[in-house]
Write a structure and sequence with these properties.
alpha+beta, globular
Length: 140
């Protein structure tokens, strides 16, 4: 039987902003501070589970989510899990803050500054998912 290979254009799927956050507190504490500082209502939803290496390995990361009335979505994903790292390239990053909302560059920089002013956040950095080797893990 002939083998058929389907190719997808994943670059079009990166329609979100991504920030790496360094924070030594638990995920619920970070979300509490984000809710207060950014006027969000992040709530814990079901964990995001990925199957890797043809079903041999699984990574389960906690996920917090908020959808506002304008169709914008906000997510917090834990990088450090009991089974390893969600994104191994960023071993110093504790959490990923993902915003599915098309915004201009100046607003993205403003959001990055706001993240850095949160007391429990030690560092916040804008990341480009297109440049992450395993960036497709953010597509769910």
């Amino acid at each position: 039987m002939a083998k058929h290979v389907l190719k997808t254009d994943t670059k079009a799927a990166y329609d979100f902003m991504l920030f790496g956050i360094i924070c030594q507190h638990h995920d619920y504490r970070l979300c509490f501070e984000l809710n207060h500082a950014l006027n969000l209502s992040l709530e814990r939803t079901g964990d995001l589970e990925l199957t890797l290496n043809k079903g041999k390995d699984k990574i389960k990361t906690s996920r917090f989510e908020y959808k506002d009335g304008f169709g914008n979505e906000y997510f917090i994903l834990t990088n450090k899990t009991s089974n390893g790292l969600f994104i191994a390239e960023y071993k110093n990053i504790d959490y990923f803050f993902m915003v599915r909302e098309p915004v201009p560059m100046h607003e993205m920089l403003q959001l990055e500054k706001q993240l850095r002013t949160i007391p429990v956040v030690l560092g916040a950095y804008h990341l480009e998912p297109e440049k992450i080797k395993t960036g497709e893990r953010f597509i769910f």
